[in-house]
């Protein structure tokens, strides 16, 4: 009998131990995919694909009527893609919140001048549209080029999951070696929130396409740039770029 009691006592202790282990919270390793944004401001990237034979007509119409659109919200820049894509325009819009964007879209839908003078004419000229919501990375801000004119490169990097919390320091160092050495001017560094995820975009400015080519050759021989880029590349999956010219009505030109 004593032996049976001992067996039951041990079994009861074992069961209590198992239950206590199961009831403990399981540690989780969270992956930070967000840009660790401290405020609600975001930037909407829009890309319009224009029917080839209507490219010039679309740009002319937009130049004449863009004021109807900018009356509702802030346009950062508007560019025509020259290399890395054909018959495309790329533009960036700034919003203080998603609520503001929703109110802007609602107002545009009720604006007869916008609908009749632009939308009804522009939409048939397009083959498709894309948009993406981005935030500035924590260490970046929008900075206009030192002078008007020049060309812009939108460099897009597909990073490993984790966001700026994972690759931020290495990527900041890579960008910093280019800007700090005077190789290029960064208009802004953006991280995707909606659209393709884990993407970071750098909008660069150069005086000309030939200056960009010369700078790339020079920077590739700079040991500081090579070291920083090599470290950042450990988090990189793929990349692409577009060279763009600012439209006449672009605030950043």
UniProtKB/TrEMBL annotation:
Q: Could you tell me which InterPro entries the record lists for this protein?
A: Dimeric_a/b-barrel, NIPSNAP, NipSnap_domain
Report domain NIPSNAP positions: 43-141, 152-251
> Where does the source fall among the domains of life?
Eukaryota
One GO cellular component term noted in the UniProt record for this chain: mitochondrion
Biological processes per GO annotation: mitophagy
Which protein family is it in?
A: Belongs to the NipSnap family.
Write the protein's name.
Protein NipSnap homolog 3A-like
| Name of the gene this protein is made from | nipsnap3a
